[in-house]
Structure formats: structure tokens, C-alpha cells
Design brief:
Layout: H1 4-7, H2 12-19, H3 25-53, H4 57-67, H5 79-111, H6 131-155, H7 162-198
Helix pairs in contact: 3-4, 3-5, 5-6, 6-7
Length: about 200
């Protein structure tokens, strides 16, 4: 007597439940649109930085408004201001990388295979991606983003009170500890699965 698993056919309810994974498709398409917004924001900031370096007053004002949070505002493009803008650009790139991991890795893991095996542009990490690997990679990406934000705060420390700096440092440490806990749990699960396979 054949079973749904052996015959390859699913019951109507099982088919409906399995088909529901495609409800995530609009979410990933939405993240692609968010990626487009980040690309636009990156180029706006980069053009303003170049314009400020070339003496454009409007671009300089926009740059200073973006990076100055205190009462003391620079009147020209300083090394600190340039560094803060560049760190902001790096922050955008790292968030974009995080979006790519969520879009490609999430779709591959939870929706459908992309069929990239053997493709010359296949991301190296995608060949062994699963839910656990994706969680660890996302946690590491979040730590990287948090590090950039913390570095921007330290560089511009004069415009922040001690409480804000301490709070941001504590939040970064929480992210770090969470990532270590996720990686440790993943290691335990991997060892448990290997032990089960060995026996």
C-alpha cells in the first residue's frame, strides 16, 4: 500500500500547507525594494561628499547636518567629518550585505531552490547554507553593523553624553554575546547530529 511519502503525492491539506511557503515571496521582493532604497541613499551621500570636497556649499551643509549631532558644528569639511560620512557609507554597504543574505539565503532555505549549483557567480556561503548557518551569519553581520555605529559614536564622542556611549557599548556587547550563544548552540546541535549519524 502506497503512502503519500512513497508515492510522491501530497494530500490536499499537505499541499496547501506546503504551498503556503510562497506567501514569503512578497516579503523577499519587498526587501529587494528596500535594497534599491539603500543603493539610492548610498549614491546621494557619496555625491554630497564629493560635492563638499569640491567646495559645493549645499553639499557641505547636507553633510554637516547628517553627521553633526551636537551644538558645535564644523564650518568646513574636516577629517573627522569625512570619516563619519565614510563610516556611514560602510554602514549602508554592510546593511545591504545583510539584506542580500536574508533575501538569497532565506529564499533558498524556506521557499525554493535557486538552482545556482555550478554557477560561476554563486556566493561561496550559499553552497552550505541552512537555517542554522543563516542565523549565525546574520548575527555576525549585525555585530559588524553595531561595531560601525559604535565606532561612529566614539569618533564623535564629544557630541554624546556618557550615558549614551555606555548604553551603546552595552547593546553592542549584548549583540556579541547573543551571536556567541547562537554559534555555541549551533555547534552543540551539529555535534549531536553527527553523534546520532555515527551510531
Amino acid at each position: 500500500m502506497s503512502t503519500p511519502a512513497s508515492s510522491g503525492k501530497l494530500s490536499p491539506l499537505a499541499s496547501l500547507i506546503f504551498f503556503s511557503r510562497w506567501l514569503q515571496l512578497p516579503l523577499y521582493l519587498g526587501l529587494i525594494l528596500a535594497q534599491c532604497v539603500y543603493v539610492f541613499h548610498f549614491w546621494v551621500e557619496l555625491i554630497d561628499l564629493i560635492g563638499a570636497a569640491m567646495g559645493n556649499e549645499a553639499a557641505l551643509k547636507h553633510i554637516i547636518d547628517a553627521v553633526s549631532t551636537g551644538a558645535v558644528r564644523p564650518t568646513k569639511l574636516t577629517e573627522t567629518t569625512i570619516m563619519l560620512v565614510v563610516l556611514g557609507l560602510i554602514d549602508v554597504v554592510m546593511i545591504s550585505n545583510l539584506l542580500i543574505m536574508v533575501i538569497i539565503g532565506g529564499y533558498e532555505t524556506f521557499v525554493s531552490r535557486l538552482g545556482l549549483d555550478g554557477h560561476p557567480d554563486q556566493p561561496e556561503w550559499l553552497s552550505h547554507v541552512n537555517a542554522s548557518v543563516l542565523k549565525v551569519k546574520l548575527a555576525m553581520a549585525i555585530i559588524g553593523i553595531s561595531s560601525i555605529h559604535l565606532l561612529k559614536t566614539f569618533i564623535n564622542a564629544g557630541n554624546y553624553d556618557a550615558g549614551t556611549i555606555i548604553a551603546q557599548t552595552c547593546i553592542h556587547m549584548v549583540f556579541l554575546m547573543s551571536a556567541l550563544a547562537i554559534a555555541y548552540c549551533d555547534q552543540i546541535m551539529t555535534k549531536t547530529a553527527q553523534s546520532a549519524n555515527d551510531h
